[in-house]
Amino acid sequence: EIVLTQSPDFQSVTPKETVTITCRASQTIGSSLHWYQHKPNQSPKLLIKFASQSISGVPSRFSGSGSGADFTLTISGLEAEDAATYYCQQSYGLPLTFGGGTKVEIK
Amino acid sequence: QVQLQESGPGLVKPSQTLSLTCTVSGASLTNNEYYWSWVRQPPGKGLEWIGYIYYSGDSFNNPSLRSRLTISMDTSKNQFSLKLTSVTAADTAFYYCARYNQANGGNFDHWGQGPLVIVSS
C-alpha cells in the first residue's frame, strides 16, 4: 500500500497569505497525485489532477507541483472561502489511498 | 450534469450488514471510462477508499475490508450498491459514492452527499 503523508496537519492563515501543503508518497508515483478540498457538510471537490493540472472552474489561486514522491499544493492569496481540509490522493496503485489531510483555518 | 445520490439506513446494529445504494444520473454506469466507487470518512478522521466496480461488473476492494465487502451494480436502474457485513462501531462513517475517472488520471470527479451511517445498538 502506498502511504501518503501530508504536512502540516493544521495551518492557521491570514487572508491573502500563501498556503503551502506538502504530500509525500512512500514510493515514487510519477504524477499520479490529485488534490481535493473538503468543506464541512459538503462532499470533497477535485482541485488539481496529475499533480499540477488545473480543473475547470477551480480558481487559479490553487496550483500544484511535484513529481516522483514529493508534491505541493499552493494557495496563493488565501480567501475566507478556502477554509477547508485538503487531501492528496494517489492513483498509481491499488488500494487507492489518501493523505491524512491538512486543515486550513482562516485567522 | 452528473449527480450521485446515496440511499440507505442511517443506523445499523453491530454484527449486522450495512447496505447503501448510489443512484447515478447524467452518466451511464456502462461507460467504460469510469469506475463507480465508495469512499468513507469516520467522523473526525480522513478519507478511506472502500472499493469500486467497473462496467463489466468486475470489482476491486480495499484489502482492509475485502472479506466483508461486496460492491454490485444494476445497470437497468443505473445504480450501484455497497454491502458491508459484520459491522462494528469502527464502521461508523460518512459514506460517499463517487465517480472514479480513470481516463482523466484516476481521480474522483463527482461525489454524492455522503450520509452518516452510525453503527450502534
Concise overview:
The complex is a heterodimer of chains A (107) and B (121). Chain A has 107 residues and is an all-beta fold.
Please describe what this structure looks like:
- With 107 residues, chain A is mostly beta strands.
- Helices cover 0% and strands 52% of the residues of chain A.
- In chain A, strands 2, 4, 5, 6, 9, 10 and 11 form a 7-stranded mixed sheet that branches.
- The termini of chain A are far apart.
- Chain B is built from no helices and 11 strands.
- Chain B has strands at 3-7, 11-12, 18-25, 34-41, 48-54, 59-61, 69-74, 79-84, 93-101, 107-111, 116-119.
- In chain B, a hairpin with a 5-residue loop joins strand 9 and strand 10.
- Chain B is globular, with a radius of gyration of 14 Å.
- The mean pLDDT of chain B is 96.
Question: What's the layout of helices and strands?
Answer:
The complex is a heterodimer of chains A (107) and B (121).
Chain A: E1 4-7, E2 10-13, E3 18-25, E4 33-38, E5 45-49, E6 53-54, E7 62-67, E8 70-76, E9 84-90, E10 97-98, E11 102-106
Chain B: E1 3-7, E2 11-12, E3 18-25, E4 34-41, E5 48-54, E6 59-61, E7 69-74, E8 79-84, E9 93-101, E10 107-111, E11 116-119
Parallel strand pairs in B: 2-11
Antiparallel strand pairs in B: 1-3, 3-8, 4-5, 4-9, 5-6, 7-8, 9-10, 9-11
In the predicted model, the low-confidence regions of chain B spanning at least 5 consecutive residues are none
Judged by helices, strands and strand pairing, the structural class of chain A is: mainly beta
Mean pLDDT of chain B: 96
What is the global morphology of chain A? globular
| Biggest interface | A-B, 23 and 21 residues
Overall body shape of chain B: globular
Strand tally of chain B: 11
H/E series of chain B, N to C? Answer: EEEEEEEEEEE
Helix content of chain B: under 10%
Q: What is the quaternary state of this protein?
A: heterodimer
- Straight-line distance between termini of chain B: 39 Å
Uncertain stretches of 5 or more adjacent residues of chain A: none
Q: What distance lies between the first and last C-alpha atoms of chain A, to the nearest angstrom?
A: 36 Å
Number of helices of chain A: 0
- Characterize the largest beta sheet of chain B: strand count, sense, and whether it forms a barrel: 7 strands, mixed
